[in-house]
Amino acid sequence: MFNFSAGRARLIPAGGGTPLELGVVQSADVEFKVDLKELRGAYRYPIAVADGKGTCSGKVSFAQLWPATLAGITGATVGTGAPEGVIAESATIAAVTPFDVTLANAATMVPGSEIVTVIDATGSPVFYSRGAVGAIASSSVAGQANGVYSIANGVLTFIAADAGLKVQVTYLYTPVAGINNTKLSLQQVGMNSAPTFQLTLLGTGAKNIYNNQAQQFIVQLNACLAPSLKLNLKLDDFTMADLDYQAFTDVNGILGEIFLINPAG
Fold this sequence. Notes:
Elements: E1 4-13, E2 20-39, E3 48-64, H1 67-74, E4 77-79, E5 84-92, E6 100-102, E7 115-119, E8 125-127, E9 129-130, E10 148-152, E11 155-157, E12 166-173, E13 183-185, E14 197-204, E15 206-207, E16 214-232, E17 240-248, E18 256-261
Parallel strand pairs: 9-10
Antiparallel strand pairs: 1-2, 1-14, 2-3, 3-17, 4-13, 5-12, 6-11, 7-8, 7-12, 10-11, 14-16, 15-16, 16-17, 16-18
């Protein structure tokens, strides 16, 4: 038979529960591997080879990030109240005292989350540092790397030399009620507490090229742990999640099963 495309992948938490989709799978692999032990004499090639310890592991790369799936992999607690981010909100520092900028989401800004960039007179960006309220006048130099601002209740205050300059602020804020947002809380846990799950890789259904019968390739691994979950954020592409897994035998001593539907041809 021939299997085409990455198909779909799902995991089921140990003990049952709702299957969790690894959405929009880009690739998936399974590797069965054993250590080989060689007996050698005085010559180049071994005179006997035996298989020793074995592993079954692989990786699934997927694009759709479901909260329940990420929680099922990491053991995180699912809740609400996630902040939203504003990237490079633009404003102009007031030309008159108090030389301030009020953020668009000042009332619900997350304190300490801001990154402030001032565009100096030459058009170059300069990162400013946060200083104590009321103490910036003596420590700030306009347009220099040691420029300082103060902030209170979402209002940024600069010195007179910064008046009229452009500023860009990246920060977090708490959205209004009714927005659908989810927070995954990652807590300190003891060792040997990672979630165990059953992993199923379902090949995309296809037709036998010789007799036109439906075919499908399925791999089911009964007990798995995830040693790594990697989130790849890229400049000009979609974020991808890479789930590494290692399978082991379940309580019945079974590693898993491979199903080939209508394999002839």
